[in-house]
Structure formats: C-alpha cells, structure tokens
Specification:
Blueprint lengths: L11 H51 L1 E2 L3 E2 L2 E7 L5 E6 L6 E7 L3 E5 L5 E7 L4 E5 L5 E7 L4 E7 L4 E6 L4
Antiparallel strand pairs: 1-2, 3-4, 3-7, 4-5, 6-9, 7-8, 9-10, 10-11
Length: about 170
C-alpha cells in the first residue's frame, strides 16, 4: 500500500491571494505618500524662511557678511506674493544684498500689515531685532499652498521667532 506524503509549499491560489493583499496595501501607502508631497514641500519652504531670518540675525552678530560686507545692520525683507516669491537679506544699504532666496509654489501673506512688505532689522553687534511695519513688536508671515499653511511668528520684544503649523490667527 502506498502512503501519501505531505506536500510542502504553497498552492498557486494561496500565492495569488498573498500577492493581491500585498498589492492592495502597497497602493494605499503610495497614495498616502503622494498626498503628503505638497505638505512636505510647503514645510521645506517655511523652513527656508525661518533659516533666512536666523541667517540675518547671525550676520548681525558676526558684524559682516560674505564678500566682506560690513554693515551696521542686516535686513530680512519679504513681501506678499502669489507666485515667484522670494526673500532678501541685505546690509543697511539696499545695494549690499547678501542673499536672495526664491520660494517655490507658495503664497506669502504678511498678516496684520497694511503694507505688502515686512522688514526685520537686526542691529550689529548684538543682533537686536526691530520690525519695520505697522506693529513694531509682532509680525506674522503666513506661507501657504492649496492644501496647507504654516505661520511664522516674529516678536521683536522677546526676540522669539517660531514656526507654527496652520494659518496665522
């Protein structure tokens, strides 16, 4: 009498079911990551603005910029815009431009300002911050796209600069 040996391995049906489940789960993950791309790019642009403000402060603490630009103050300037946005860091004189950074695919709104431009001035040698705008003690820069927003709050009294996820209130 012949004995049946137990088969080892998986059947074709079991393999196809496993592949179908794996494909379904993978498609959910790809969709999730694609949706986060806009938010990630927006966060990157908000971080660029925050870095620019810090760079202007650091230049004022050092007392000079690249190419031996010596100035009594360094100015971070940004304007309202819907596309082709940028910020500039310059010395006291406008022709002493240190940095001009383009911001991609974002809208910039200066909150609580009647003018379209905000200038943050850092005085040499201690980096004391002054805001040139309607409110000399506080300013808010909203960086947004179609799906999300970040708010950068600048307080000249405390010298605090912080980034907050969401719209400026």
């Amino acid at each position: 009498m012949l004995k049946h040996q137990a088969q080892k391995g998986f059947t074709l049906i079991e393999l196809l079911v496993a592949i179908a489940i794996f494909t379904l789960l993978s498609s959910f993950m790809v969709a999730k990551f694609a949706g986060n791309e806009d938010a990630r790019l927006l966060k990157e642009q908000a971080d660029l603005v925050l870095t620019g403000i810090d760079q202007a402060r650091n230049l004022s603490l050092a007392g000079s910029g690249p190419s031996n630009i010596y100035s009594q103050q360094f100015v971070f300037a940004i304007s309202n815009c819907q596309s082709n946005c940028f910020y500039e860091i310059s010395g006291k004189d406008p022709d002493q431009q240190v940095v001009k950074k383009n911001l991609e695919k974002v809208n910039i709104t200066i909150k609580d300002e009647t003018s379209n431009k905000l200038a943050i001035v850092f005085a040499v040698p201690r980096g004391r911050m002054t805001l040139l705008g309607d409110n000399p003690s506080e300013a808010k820069i909203e960086i947004s796209n179609d799906s999300a927003a970040f708010c950068i709050q600048v307080n000249s009294v405390s010298g605090k600069v912080e980034e907050i996820k969401g719209n400026c209130l």
